[in-house]
């Protein structure tokens, strides 16, 4: 892969301009072969502090924008992305190493989310309150409205950089909040370009450019943003350990945390096994397995586990691995070689503890084969923690009670799915699985971008999806009136 020429100005977009003062640069690497994709700016704590000051200064103007202007801005940004769809897809392949098919999906979902955020503005309203239901409220008028929470800091992960940045930025704009976005250090390119497009649209609508700023850098930059007591809210997608630190740094201000998971697929004794195996093929390896709700744990009833494993094994050849630029590829290289070695270490730990290798387990160049482990025992990291790689694990349980207990024994709880032909089993799963979302007869990685998305336990707090994120990024303001 050759060097990509940036489609945006040099530097960092802070305080209404792209600044290069004090900005270092770093090479962004194509994970598949280690080639340099482009140079990216690296900010400092001084840049983060400057962005905070600019965001706080502009916030009253952003809060005063009419709903119509905010809606036009959101729709126009979506149109700009649509016009550049192919270029964004190629850029995402280059900086993330995800297969082209997954990057196309990311752009599709990004476009939908900008449109959904624009339409969700109509749901941002309040209600009247019958104050006269309590003594002392006779003759009084009460109602509440929603007001912007203030300047938002949005921190995105590396795996879906354009989509995750959109889920931070678009609802913030819709809610009337200025936002500072911090992309992951190794995947900032698409988000820099997105910010440039937002500024172009803002100029056309006479909206301050500081409605969106972007700062890159390491943990100290993030801490400068999240620990400032004047911030309204922090929205973070990433690991549980970093999310916990952010929660401590920004308390008592609002924080939304989309953290890790080890998503489970329960296969009941009455499940359609071909459909369940198809779910594993579709839902276990997309995005190179670097998706928080890709299938990691398969919990299968003992009556069908042998047949299910056979169905999965017979279809693993469909999960083509290799060059992510090719349309047939389904698994490419992980984000860096350190991640690949970590996954290999976890797989070896499981094999040493008694797990069986059903498929994969080898590295070709920089690409780890899609891997399936059978009879994975307790207390190994490949089962207990988020592997974030193309590995799925199968464990046998005697019945549905044990399956539900096994899912819930995890410290994570983002989404889980169950394959069954029984309505009773489906509703038990919905009622009893301790997760943010239960999916029946579909992959646990199913996400509609307008639904409330988020987890429980160490998978986080708060909900995304434009309407729900907007509620998180606004506060109620009560009005009480005694007519003269």
Per CATH, which architecture of the largest domain?
3-Layer(aba) Sandwich
User: Which spans have pLDDT < 50 for at least 5 consecutive residues?
Assistant: none
Silhouette: globular
Briefly note the structural class of the backbone: alpha/beta
| Main sheet attributes: strand count, strand direction, barrel closure | 7 strands, mixed
User: At the fourth CATH level, what is the homologous superfamily of the largest domain?
Assistant: Aldehyde Dehydrogenase, Chain A, domain 1
* Residues in helices, as a percent range: 25-40%
Specify the CATH class of the largest domain.
Answer: Alpha Beta
Give structural notes.
The structure is a single chain. With 484 residues, the protein is α/β, with parallel strands linked by helices. It has two domains: 12-259 and 459-480, Aldehyde Dehydrogenase, Chain A, domain 1; 264-448, Aldehyde Dehydrogenase, Chain A, domain 2 (3-Layer(aba) Sandwich). Helix content is 39%, strand content 21%. The protein has 15 helices and 24 strands. The model has no long low-confidence stretch (mean pLDDT 97).
Structure described in brief:
The chain is α/β, with parallel strands linked by helices and 484 residues long.
Based on the model shown, name its key terms:
484 residues, Aldehyde Dehydrogenase, Chain A, domain 1, Aldehyde Dehydrogenase, Chain A, domain 2, 2 domains, six-stranded mixed β-sheet, 15 helices, globular
């Amino acid at each position: 892969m050759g060097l990509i020429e940036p489609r945006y100005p040099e530097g960092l977009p802070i305080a209404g301009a792209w600044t290069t003062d004090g900005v270092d640069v770093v090479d962004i690497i194509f994970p598949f072969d280690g080639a340099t994709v482009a140079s990216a700016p690296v900010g400092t704590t001084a840049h983060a502090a400057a962005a905070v000051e600019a965001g706080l200064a502009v916030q009253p103007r952003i809060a005063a924008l009419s709903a119509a202007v905010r809606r036009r801005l959101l729709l126009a940004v979506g149109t700009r992305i649509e016009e550049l769809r192919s270029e964004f897809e190629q850029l995402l392949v280059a900086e993330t190493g995800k297969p082209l098919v997954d990057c196309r999906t990311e752009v599709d979902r990004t476009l939908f989310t900008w449109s959904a955020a624009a339409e969700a503005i109509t749901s941002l309203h309040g209600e009247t309150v019958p104050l006269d239901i309590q003594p002392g409220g006779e003759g009084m008028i009460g109602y509440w409205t929603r007001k912007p929470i203030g300047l938002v800091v949005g921190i995105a992960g590396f795996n879906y950089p354009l989509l995750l940045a959109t889920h931070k930025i678009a609802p913030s704009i819709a809610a009337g909040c200025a936002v500072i976005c911090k992309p992951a250090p190794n995947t900032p390119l698409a988000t820099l370009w997105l910010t440039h497009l937002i500024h172009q649209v803002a100029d056309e609508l006479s909206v301050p450019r500081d409605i969106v700023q972007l700062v890159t850098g390491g943990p100290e930059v993030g801490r400068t943003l999240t620990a400032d007591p004047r911030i309204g809210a922090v929205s973070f997608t990433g690991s549980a350990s970093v999310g916990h630190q952010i929660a401590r740094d920004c308390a008592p201000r609002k924080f939304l945390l989309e953290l890790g998971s080890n998503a489970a697929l329960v296969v009941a004794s009455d499940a359609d096994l071909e459909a369940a195996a198809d779910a594993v093929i579709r839902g276990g390896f997309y995005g190179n397995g670097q998706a928080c709700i890709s299938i990691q744990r398969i919990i299968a009833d003992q009556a069908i586990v042998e047949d299910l494993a056979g169905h999965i094994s017979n279809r693993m050849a469909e999960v083509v691995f290799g060059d992510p630029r090719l349309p047939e590829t389904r698994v490419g290289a992980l984000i860096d070689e350190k991640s690949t070695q970590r996954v290999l270490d976890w797989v070896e730990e499981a094999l040493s503890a008694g797990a069986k290798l059903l498929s994969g387990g080898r590295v070709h160049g920089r690409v780890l084969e899609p891997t399936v482990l059978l009879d994975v025992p307790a207390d190994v990291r490949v089962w207990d923690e988020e592997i974030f790689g193309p590995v799925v694990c199968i464990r046998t349980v005697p019945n549905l009670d044990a399956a539900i207990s096994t899912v819930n024994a995890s410290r994570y709880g983002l989404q889980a799915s169950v394959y069954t032909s029984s309505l009773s089993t489906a509703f038990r799963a919905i009622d009893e699985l301790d997760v943010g979302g239960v999916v029946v007869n579909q992959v646990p990685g199913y996400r509609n971008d307008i639904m409330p998305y988020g987890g429980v336990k160490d998978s986080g707090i708060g909900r995304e999806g434009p309407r729900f994120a907007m509620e998180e990024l606004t506060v109620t303001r009560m009005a009480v009136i005694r007519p003269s």
